[in-house]
Amino acid sequence: MSRTEHPTDLALSARSEVAVRGVAIDPPRTTVSLGSTIPLRRPGGAGPSADGHVLVDGLKTTIPLDPTSPYRLRGGRLVRTGPDGGVTDLGVEVTTVARPAFYDLTTADGVPYEQIARLHGDDVLATTVVQTCVRYGEQDRCRFCAIEQPLSTGATTVVKTPEQLAEVAAAAVRLDGVEQMVLTTGTSNGRDRGARHLARCVRAIKAAVPALPVQVQCEPPAPSDLAALAELRDAGADAIGIHVESLDDAVRARWMPGKASVPLSQYRLAWDEAVRRFGANAVSTYLIVGLGEDADELVAGAAELVERGVYPFVVPYRPIPGTLAFADGDPAPDPELLAEVTARVAEVLQAAGMRGADQAAGCAACGACSALSAAGG
């Protein structure tokens, strides 16, 4: 189907535009610091980085900050500036998220809470429990990933202990009304790919805040160790993300050579076992638009995932400083392509009765890094 057969509404179009092109921050006119324009920011890491967290028409949204972007936030609205200096209000309300109170605290063993976990959107606590990855060597690294970069700036710690995470989670719920938590991890050498450390962390968090929904994210365990997925569920995890990023082997070989050594058949085994343990629409995977995959094939792959009970979380590739792709100058995708793929995948999700908002916790439940929520997915 052509793009013209899938018109998108203003909210989806606007979210797709700013997801790719970002927003510029006007220079401050007072003594207020530049960072106060978007108080909640994530400077680097494994996922969408160098982003500001805001609410666009009430929906959680991450926006790259780019001084060359024609989009700006003014008076709580998203506007576009033209080459002639004219300003167009796009009819979208934007609300910033205040810096959370728990960031001012320190753990019992002396680590600032902000180095242990961070607020995403207005009510999601997220952390990378192990900030190193066996695939981070230059020959194996995912080209869009900067998981180890925050270690060099002191923004985070290498390993978060279960006790630290439980302490921070309890404070974030108490002080800032956090409603869900996401635990991801760099890949380990073990057959479980880091799942068992995630399980220990989940147990500690659930002991401290039993009602807090938690999503875990890891690579597929080895086929001989799929029991690690049952251990995650038994520990109390409510949802799981097993992220493939692309279902095209040529794309995988170029963009994620280390992860491409894990065959897609192993992902499918893990997804099916995860759906058996967690249930349909409690298992998700990232699909990245802009890696060179054909749009029709990407949508067809998303439909295959939906049939398995796996939610395809469609996000754009973002050029993140510190990544191999950024150094090579790989551009972000065309916003129209992102909007088209997002709208088409949302239609598949709607037909299957799957919504990210129906998940207890996780990236799809948050929705900030994708425009799917604006398209009804």
Give a description of the structure.
This protein has about 375 residues and is an alpha/beta fold. Helices cover about 30% and strands about 20% of the residues. Strands 7-8-9-10-11-12-13 form a 7-stranded mixed β-sheet. Strands 1, 2, 3, 4, 5 and 6 form a 6-stranded antiparallel β-sheet that branches. Mean pLDDT is about 90; it is low at about 1-10 and about 30-35.
The CATH homologous superfamily: Aldolase class I
Q: What is the H/E string? A: HEEEEEEHEEHHEHEHEHHEHEHHH
Tally of individual domains:
1
Number of helices: 12
> Nearest-angstrom radius of gyration?
20 Å
State the major sheet: 7 strands, mixed
Characterize the overall form. Answer: globular
The CATH architecture is Alpha-Beta Barrel
Per CATH, the class reads: Alpha Beta
Labels describing this entry:
377 residues, TIM Barrel, alpha/beta
How do the helices and strands line up, and which of them pair or pack?
Blueprint: H1 10-21, E1 41-42, E2 51-56, E3 59-64, E4 71-74, E5 77-81, E6 87-96, H2 113-116, E7 118-120, E8 124-128, H3 149-153, H4 162-176, E9 180-184, H5 195-208, E10 214-217, H6 227-235, E11 239-241, H7 249-255, H8 264-278, E12 283-289, H9 295-308, E13 310-316, H10 324-328, H11 335-352, H12 363-366
Parallel strand pairs: 8-9, 9-10, 10-11, 11-12, 12-13
Antiparallel strand pairs: 1-2, 2-3, 2-6, 4-5, 5-6, 7-8
